[in-house]
Amino acid sequence: MPPRAPKQLRILMVASEAYPFSKTGGLADVTAALPKALGRLGHDVTLITPRYRGIEAGTLVDSARLHVAGTWLDVDFSERALGPGARVLFLDCPPLYDRPGIYNEQGIDYTDNALRFGLLAAASVDWLGRQPLPMDIVHAHDWQAGLVPVYLRDPGHPATVFTIHNLAYQGIVDKAWVPRLGLGWQDFTVAGFEFYDRLSLLKAGVNFADHVTTVSPTYAAEIQRPEYGNGFDGVMRARAAHLTGILNGIDTDEWDPRRDPFLPVPFDVSDLAGKSLAKRALLEVYGLPLTDRTMAQPVVGMVSRMVDQKGLDLVAALAAELPFLDASFVVLGTGDTRYQDMWNGLSAWRPDRIAAHVGFDERRAHLIEGGADLFLMPSRFEPCGLNQMYSLRYGTVPVVRAVGGLVDTVRPFNPHNGQGTGFLFSEYSPDALRETLSAALALYRGNPKAWTRLQKNGMRKDFSWDRSAAEYVKVYKRVMARRRDTRPTGPGI
């Protein structure tokens, strides 16, 4: 008999943002790409996410009236296709989601975020219960969907997977929300969702899900240690037997030097000629001198949130030295005022060497990945990171700190055997960053042949979402089997 085709899974995802509809960070990239990749593998995926201001609704497919936190709320679900086998349902509730910001305005969180994302969880579970065909797995993302596993804790519901994208964001609210969100005080414990006498929506997701994932294997190990656990290291150690790190993928259609519309001409691992033209375009866009000397100099790029997490304090400690390195620097991003001012000040001081654009610009982001020679990412911690993978794909050599997903994606270059894809440092210090960046610049200047090999090593790596999606399917199937055997009815620790 011929082998049976793999069982198609019916998967529900719940997330607070998804690119290109809404985005504040890497969560949106994952929840946009993973459903499509699972769909390409033959599975049936529905993503539920709020319809924020400015999102065009799709076809109205469902409506409901829900009682959440003492309030009756009318909600609509409208559908749009994401790709073969994948769709998005927008949860529409204008009083809660039709606002200028997703989570906050001018840096101040909305005071009713517990209600806004409690509704996301409650409405998703309510929708699930009204479907003619059951789901095999429910996959919730980050604290905003942390109540989904709690609401699905009883036997008969689908198995649940909960993904932590960044443990630093824990969804901590006043404990008065416990009864308002339909939760029981019996679970307001260390083994439930209590966190220093407050309610943590992240902890709810971690402790009540059948399985927990993070966005890289190394980060899964790191968050079990105090230095990276943000106070949750004990919680994560308790769940270690049901914790898996799966490296995020990248959108290899959007980030592909062979057909990137933002590059002057395409290039690939077999022909890097187009990379020098991208470098020329990058210097032009940033207003840096375009001479034989600047073209021969290495260009160091950064596309980053300008915050401590991304290692900007290390860069600030070396700010006075940067203009005297044999390199040009191009920077794109936004964040803390002190770091924005730092880059603007350096640009004004040495406009022949340093150029910064505060804000975001898609063309500049692609030009930096395509035209820079090195990419700087000295993160204090990094759950996964995407830009280092974009850089590798474009032959732009990463200089990164050896943490989280950076360790899992960048291998140290060994000039003796030609193996490796970038430069890494472990100690979180300006001296370590200076030494590692200097070593990278020295190789660029002193050994062009080795540099080209280093570029091509990175370009040959596979960071596609198809690979990552296949790993998620393995987790889903293990969790479904375990749920059938054990049927947990309480916290998973």
Q: What is the typical, i.e. mean, pLDDT?
A: 94
The strands making up the biggest β-sheet line up spatially as 3-4-5-2-1-8-9-13-14
Terminal-residue CA separation: 43 Å
Strand content: 15-25%
Q: What is the highest CATH level, the class of the largest domain?
A: Alpha Beta
Biggest β-sheet strands, sense, barrel: 9 strands, mixed
CATH architecture of the largest domain: 3-Layer(aba) Sandwich
Task: Supply the CATH superfamily name of the largest domain.
Answer: Glycogen Phosphorylase B
Write the layout of secondary structure elements.
Blueprint (H helix, E strand, L loop, with lengths): L9 E5 L11 H15 L3 E7 L8 E10 L2 E13 L2 E7 L1 H4 L6 E2 L2 E2 L3 H17 L7 E5 L6 H4 L7 E6 L7 E2 L3 H4 L13 E2 L2 E3 H8 L2 E4 L2 H6 L3 H4 L3 H6 L4 E3 L27 H13 L6 H5 L2 E5 L8 H6 L10 E6 L3 H13 L4 E5 L3 H10 L2 E4 L9 H7 L3 E5 L2 H6 L13 E3 L4 H17 L1 H12 L5 H22 L7
Helix pairs in contact: 1-19, 10-14
